[in-house]
Design a protein that fits this description.
Elements: H1 2-17, H2 21-24, H3 38-47, H4 109-138
């Protein structure tokens, strides 16, 4: 019985935490082949001027010149920032507190009763199953 419980616990942990394992991996070393355009590589190089990814490696053609991945093609036209329109000002509510429920309203009485009922029902079923298994195991 303990082996089954231990296996079930281990499987539950693996199924629960397994999908999150990929998120924990750090980003690997970047090379010039990871970028399509020189401007993208330059932006990454500008984030850390110590160049841990060796994006400014000139392959023995002289001293590093702070230009990343010089062999990559450049964009045809420079990307200009898109002007954002000014935000529209919304009018203030006129009805004050009676203007609507909003996000600060709590659960209704029915929702509290339903949640408590489900919790008590689950507890009752669990206890009933435990009593059933003990009686079955004792042979009475």
């Amino acid at each position: 019985m303990r082996i089954r419980a231990l296996c079930a616990t281990a499987i539950t942990v693996v199924v629960t935490a397994g999908p999150a394992v990929q998120v924990a991996h750090a980003r690997g070393d970047l090379d010039c082949s990871d970028f399509s355009f020189q401007e993208d590589a330059q932006a990454e190089f500008n984030r850390d001027r110590n160049d841990p990814n060796r994006l400014d490696d000139d392959h023995g053609r002289g001293r590093d010149d702070d230009i990343a991945c010089e062999d990559l093609p450049r964009r045809v036209s420079p990307v200009a920032p898109i002007a954002t329109p000014p935000p529209t000002v919304s009018p203030l509510p006129t009805r004050g507190v009676r203007g609507g429920l909003g996000g600060s309203s709590g659960p209704s009485d029915f929702e509290v009763a339903a949640g408590a009922g489900l919790a008590v029902g689950a507890l009752g079923l669990t206890l009933g199953y435990v009593v059933y298994r003990r009686r079955l195991g004792s042979g009475s």
